[in-house]
Amino acid sequence: MTRVTRDFGDTMQKEAVPAVSADVIFNSSRFPNYKIGANNQIVEVKDDPKVLSMKEVVARETAQLLEQQKRLSVRDLASKFERGLAAAAKLSEEARLREAASLEKHVLLKKLRDALESLKGRVAGRNKDDVEEAISMVEALAVQLTQREGELIQEKAEVKKLANFLKQASEDAKRLVDEERAFARAEIEHARAAVQRVEDALQEEDRMSRGSGKQDLEELMKEVQEARRIIMLHQPSKVMDMELELRALRAQLMEKSKHSLRLQKELAKSKRVAENNSQLFELDGHEALGSYLRIQPSSDNAPELSKCLIQWYRVSSEGGKKELISGATKSVYAPEPFDVGRILQADIVSEGHQITLTTAGPVDPAAGLGSYVEALVRKHDVEFKVVVTQMNGVNYASESIHVLHVGKMRIKLCKGKTTLAKEYYSTLMQLCGVRGGGNAAAQALFWQAKKGHSFVIAFESERERNAAIMLARRFAFDCNIMLAGPDDRAPLGT
């Protein structure tokens, strides 16, 4: 006979656990109706009076089996009972999905456990053992759900504690700076008062004995010079010490801020994993410029990526309209300068089902890249050592070193004294990061000098690749040209 628990073996641990109960009051003896709307949203619909409840279907099938058990064979009886169980399981699944929009996770598990308990009383033999095994698996899932919620609550508490610590550290640093500043001001005022007293005494002594007090005058002048020397030595040292302390405090606050941001991203990632524990794929990689992201299967039931349709998008961090990244249809994608400050999204379509993966947060900029590009902008022509891997869509056989010249008016690609391409900035020119290509995608870019003449160029490092893209777009913008990739419409903001 058909096993009731055939759908639970892949997602639950088969071990006996203590029963988990929830104080829930149910207004109805069956699940509500539902349907899947736009964007995979669950929408409740009115019940169809023509559809029988699970209880009525099972009762009708049981009565028919009791009437026919005297004249049916064991095989026919087993087939009939199997069809009854299949119908009950189907109705139970539809009812469970209809009520998923209005019930919490623990309530869903409680209802599923009650349905299995109700079914347990109607079956016997091997099916009863299967139902009991399914009940134990539901209880195990409830325990795992409770543990995951506890871990999330603990991580939230740790992040809150870290935020309070950073706030207290900032207040302590501010208080320390104020105290040092007040102390320095007091010392300076004290020195100024001493100088004023010496000058007053000097003037009085000069009036009293102009002719006979030359020796005393010299001594007073020495005291004045010494006092002034103390002021000149004292004030800069205090300011320097304060500046050093402020720099150290800024560095500490920056490190703590980066650590807090990393913890928040990890918390968001763990929360997303906990909410989508049945996800077939996941994004792997550092969400920053200069790195790359890879789609990896997270379940044994995940289909092969080579048989799936993949498309990458960039979405504004405020939840605005998403933009399709033309040509980004591979499992690997390397962020480019246009993606900084935006969330990346990958849609995977397999057998008519769509799975959406998003980054935990916006793409972070590369450290020091902005100042490096600003230093290069001052030059009239910047040279990069590159290797040409493709020309006009065909693999380029030679692996010799080429030189890419990014100038204020044009871009030129040379090999020794031979010029492969030289074009002024125009609307037909395209320049963007390679959208695919494996682990080396973060070091390569796509350049279409003109229509029908394109190159795929690899740089020595990710920093030079991103700097070349930003520099070329900066020079093209100065020439009133928006230089971007195929079908890109993002504004020049990087």
From TrEMBL:
Keywords from the UniProt entry: Coiled coil
GO biological process: one example: regulation of stomatal movement
Keyword Coiled coil (UniProt): yes
CDD domains: Ig-PH_SCAB1, SCAB1_middle
A GO molecular-function annotation: actin binding
Coiled coil: 159-208
Residues of the Stomatal closure-related actin-binding protein coiled-coil domain: 100-267
Superkingdom of origin: Eukaryota
Domain Stomatal closure-related actin-binding protein actin-binding: 54-96
Stomatal closure-related actin-binding protein Ig domain boundaries: 281-378
Residue ranges annotated for the Stomatal closure-related actin-binding protein PH domain, each copy included: 381-488
Keyword ATP-binding: no
Protein name per the record: Stomatal closure-related actin-binding protein PH domain-containing protein
Organism of derivation: Carpinus fangiana
Origin organism lineage: Eukaryota, Viridiplantae, Streptophyta, Embryophyta, Tracheophyta
